[in-house]
Amino acid sequence: MATRIDHDRAPAPAGPGALADVEVTSETPPGPPPAPPTRPAGRWRGRGGQRAHLSGKAKLGLGIIAFFLLLAVFGPLLAPMNPSAVGAKPLQGPSLAHLLGTTQTGQDVLSQLLVGARSTVFVGLLAGLVATALSVGVGVSAGFLGGASDEGLSLLSNVFLVLPALPLLIVVLSELRSSSDVVVALVIALTGWPWGARVLRAQTLSLRRRDFVLAARESGESTWRIVVAEILPNEVAVIAASLVGTVIFAIITTVTLAFLGLLDPSRWSWGTMLYWAQSDEALSAGAWWWFVPPGLCVAVLGMGLALTNFAIDEYSNPRLREGDQAVRSRRSRRPRLTDPTPYRPELATRAAATNGAATNGSGAGAAGAGAL
What's residue 44's pLDDT? Predict the structure, then answer.
């Protein structure tokens, strides 16, 4: 119970009747303050307090990449038999003994697929890392330093851009005595860095004029300190997209070189499997299980990398991210149930007039009956 005094009324005179002018009312005491809203599980807040979560493309792409990375690491250990061992059942279709069938010489296709995953993925990752490192070094240096350094590094990038990549790789690999995975990755990286360098140079030219970079220069920070602490953190999304794109290029290139017979055919990879399938005319023999699995693995891995690249683009581009969020919010709304019959005003007016006439007629009939 609480006592409230009405202040709008005139003050009562002091005396025995003063308590008569006091209005006593009862009020319900205020309840406890409402609990703060809880954050939905599975979401976290990024910069500025905004909700941040992985999109569907990012989850699917990262899941595919993680699967093939595990396959490259543990694939040779999971191979049921030696991929080079000759069997007694050539061109046998998928069965319990050979889940993906056998080749023309009776070799197990599943074992070749599992063992060849390590070489293909290793060459793609190594070539992507080396090419991305060259792109960052050349592109960021050219964009930030400017002047003669920019002109010289830009000229170097343009020279490598106009060189045909595949013919150059064929010539270089034919002259080298060793075609190990490391050598192949380094040769592919030599021709795969200029595109990323040009993108990073353009991004650095835009960042070098920003206020925080000018403030760092005025405060006496060294050039490499500004590049490492101010420029590179703002180019993480661009560098990641360049890495993913270069890995896709490297995987496709190494499979192409192995399919053309330019790599060592005794070293198992997905491209080597396609080379032997083409040499032994697997398509003419109808042995689809020989060439479909490696080609499908290359396609699925490329799709996973491409989806990851799209997700990185959405993260770095606010317009794409806002558009994706708008589409997701529209899909989450429940559609309203409406009458599918189209509305026509003239029919509605005619129906109202008909109902009115029927009502007047029934009223008149009732009045006549009452008079009788």
Answer: 38
